[in-house]
Amino acid sequence: MSIRFIEGEQRWVLQTEDMDYVIGIDAWGRLEHEYWGPRLASQADYAALAEVKPFRSFEDVRGMSREEIMPWHRLLHADPGLKLTFGDGTRDLVLAYDGHSVQGGELRIEMVDRLKQVRVRLNYRVQEKYDLLERWVELVNESEEEVRVERMMGAIWHLPERGNYRLTHLTGHWGAEMQLRQNGLSEGKTVLEERRGLTGHQSNPWFAVDFGDADETSGEVYFGAVAYSGHWSIMAEKSPYGFLQVGAGYSSFDFAWTLAPGESLVSPVCIGGYTRGGFGQMSRMLHDYQRERVSDRGAEALPVLYNSWEAAYFDVDERSQMELADIAAKIGIELFVMDDGWFAGRNGDKAGLGDWTPDPVKFPNGLAPLIDHVHGLGMRFGLWVEPEMTNADSDLYRKHPDWVYHYPDRERTESRNQMVLNLARSDVREFVFDSVDRLLCEYDIDYIKWDMNRYISEPGWPGQPAERQKEIWLRHVNTLYEIWRRLRAKHPRVSFESCAGGGGRVDLGIMRYSDQFWITDNTDPYDRLFQQEGYSYAYTTKQMRAWVTESPHGLNRRSASLKYRFHSAMAGALGIGLNLRHAGDEELEECRQWIERYKALRPVIQEGDLYRLLSPRAGDVSAVQYTAKDRGVAVVFLYLHAQRFSRPCPLVRLQGLEPAARYRCEQTGAVRSGSAWMAAGLRPELRGDYDSAMFTLAREENA
Ligand code: GLA
């Protein structure tokens, strides 16, 4: 039983395979966090958890409470999880326990402010197999008056009292998303958040906290994520007494929500987990959870994709796309995606967004001839769209200049020559839904790449009361989810890719609807190793699209062999962005062979366990390994960045094999026990700059 209520003790125990999470009710009737960590051996252990708080002058014990959601009230001065303002100026929330229910793996605890008639529901879903908890909060206004919500977290995570907390998180910018950082946390507040209207290139809603001693293979790690694609926030506050709490939920920046009588507001779902197996185990738990619980496509393999963007940019038309498709089919591509440039007036990034009909010059007969051609070649067809946007130079904007976010008297700042449609408006919502729905109804499209190429500015919603205009941040994202939900329900066969100028929209909220992510516009195979590593801490690489593109690379002129570029991209969901029309026969044949190889190994790479053997951040050689769930096959990718002083490659020790089984290395023919591959390792022959190798190991079944 994963959720237990211990009646006489007023205590809940939420249990996963390797974790206990315990909540109690304290002497003042508040919902108190009691424990989060490895499973405890006996029920009697739980009763001993309720702590007598040490006396601290000036800090009333009631102010030291570690409440589950930390409503701002009385002497509680830690960073609150909920803050409201009532009509009479009262700004605190005094909650009392009002019952609970358990259904399957879900616990719902009801709390009420009896005076102000506001209900707070704390929801917990236990993901037993993955040692994870999902938490979210629902706020219901049961009074006769409006209530203002000023802050709403979905979870406050209280970490065990250990002084030396270390935070791991992801940061970056366009073309450099998902870079891993680790810093010790000092007293005070560390805030990770997004204020641009989408998930963000600059930070990602995921965190991990350890005690300064965890590594890839061992150590305690607490971690979490916010399943949300808009203004999210993760706030780690370390008190001078050595506690750490991590609040996760909506960002409070420019946040306001008015709850009319009877209305409710739900926080994002927040994920929290615990492991004793280091960062590697943390990632594998998250990956399994995402593949099996968040994404609804099950074990469906991601096809090898071709995308026209880096080959053609805006210069697409029926003939040249058909030519590309002909070559793509020959090298084994399974999904052919036409990127930007196909719709009316779109010859560059200055015009056309909003007018979602094929450009009559480039596609005089619509898209059907190209789509039929692609299908005739045995590939699926995908199309790029950016439905939340409009250019000033578009029929849509000329007709509806009031449909974008703006302030009445201010200039509308354009970015990439475009403006953001106000999804809070129901007419705009229907337009956006219809634009994509119409394309999917009219054409036999198998795949949509949904992009968002600018941040929101002048977030005004003219005609609405000033305070309510701040609601656009939530309304935009909630409407986006609703549109994706409706599109998926109506077109269940269609796959979706989430892209926002690269990796601006990668999170567990959109993962419920999208099948894959574009994690960065940077396709340089070496830079990518860092981004792929960072991404893999939080997200499954099954959904990480990675393309092989031209060399020297457009962003930095770095040259790398086709082999190296494939090895880098094969560590995720392989795609090709080469200009195939310029490729010679030899190059195409090499592509064909790598693609064939990838398809054979794809079940291991996409569905297997990931082991980060050597980090690109740590030295000249990096390596990742994928192992099939039954441990029968392992694939290892090794990358040498730069050989220095004629040093040979270091030994690379494998992980996750069956120690007693014997494994044959396909490339070298060597047969050794799993324990030998793991303890003694292998030494690849890598030379020079940007060299790489791939090894596959298969278990000898009858050894
Ligand atoms: C964004 C995407 C790219 C490409 C362009 C098209 O930058 O990340 O992959 O689709 O838009 O304009």
Description of the structure:
The model has no long low-confidence stretch (mean pLDDT 96). The chain has 13 helices and 36 strands. It has 703 residues and is an alpha+beta fold. The two termini are 40 Å apart. Strands 6, 7, 8, 9, 11, 12, 14, 15, 19 and 20 form a ten-stranded antiparallel β-sheet that branches. Strands 21-22-23-26-27-28-29-30 form an eight-stranded parallel β-barrel, surrounded by five helices. Strands 5, 10, 13, 16, 17 and 18 form a six-stranded antiparallel β-sheet that branches. Alpha-D-galactopyranose (GLA) is lined by residues 309, 339-340, 384, 451, 453, 499, 501-502, 518, 521.
Question: What is the strand and helix layout of this fold?
Answer:
Blueprint (H helix, E strand, L loop, with lengths): L2 E4 L4 E5 L4 E6 L5 E7 L5 H5 L34 E5 L9 E8 L2 E8 L4 E10 L4 E10 L5 E13 L6 E6 L7 E6 L3 E6 L12 E5 L10 E7 L4 E7 L5 E7 L6 E3 L4 E3 L2 E7 L2 H17 L10 E3 L1 H4 L5 H13 L4 E4 L29 H9 L3 E6 L3 E3 L3 H5 L18 E3 L5 H17 L4 E4 L15 H4 L2 H19 L4 E4 L17 E3 L6 H14 L5 E5 L13 H9 L2 E4 L8 H23 L1 E6 L6 E7 L5 E10 L19 E4 L5 E3 H6 L9 E11 L4
Parallel strand pairs: 21-22, 21-30, 22-23, 23-26, 26-27, 27-28, 28-29, 29-30
Antiparallel strand pairs: 1-2, 2-3, 3-4, 5-10, 6-7, 7-8, 8-9, 9-19, 9-20, 10-17, 10-18, 11-12, 11-14, 13-16, 14-15, 15-20, 16-17, 24-25, 31-32, 32-33, 33-36, 34-35, 34-36
Helix pairs in contact: 4-5, 7-9, 10-11, 11-12
The site of alpha-D-galactopyranose has 11 residues, from loops.
